[in-house]
Design goal:
Length: 172
């Protein structure tokens, strides 16, 4: 099995800080009152947005389309940029320093595709469904909860994308 881009770079750099771009997407249901969210294989609690890290040579828009297909079997296209978030940590769950630059997109099903095509990969994504946004669903990490709140307030009120910074293990 071929290693992904991050595994290949980590093999060269070790635990030193690196910047990784990621892309995630919001797919609304037909009534625009629920978002497709996934139960992730790497977290026991809460939901996450379909998405993941970019591969070398891939645009953020291509990555979110690829990730939706891999994780949910859904064919989507990008509608608009929702926002950009930066999260810095001195030690991620693998023990590495990392900054994740995450770009969120609203997506829609491509013509001819159907939500009935939804099939999870059973690895990264254990389950996926359209989850009502009221009350707010529990997200798998605080940053995802902050992002969901921005999507539901700022993006629903404006076409302007937002920017968010967060840091864990802040240095004094």
């Amino acid at each position: 099995m071929e290693q992904n881009y991050i595994a290949r770079m980590r093999a060269k750099v070790g635990h030193e800080g690196m910047i990784f771009p990621s892309a995630w997407g919001v797919l609304w249901n037909e009534n625009h009152d629920a978002i497709l969210l996934e139960k992730r294989g790497d977290s026991k609690n809460g939901y996450g947005f379909p998405g993941g890290f970019l591969e070398y040579g891939e645009s953020p828009m291509q990555a979110v389309v690829r990730e939706f297909k891999e994780e949910t079997n859904l064919d989507v296209e990008v509608v608009r940029l929702l926002g950009v978030a930066s999260h810095v940590t001195d030690k991620n769950s693998w023990g590495d320093a990392q900054e994740t630059l995450s770009m969120g997109f609203e997506v829609r099903l491509v013509p001819g595709a159907s939500a009935a095509d939804l099939v999870v990969d059973g690895d990264e994504t254990l389950a996926a469904d359209f989850i009502p946004v009221n009350p707010r669903p529990e997200m798998f990490v605080p940053a995802a909860a902050e992002t969901l709140e921005r999507v539901l307030t700022e993006n629903e009120a404006s076409n302007q994308p937002w920017l968010r910074e967060s840091f864990s293990n802040k240095k004094a």
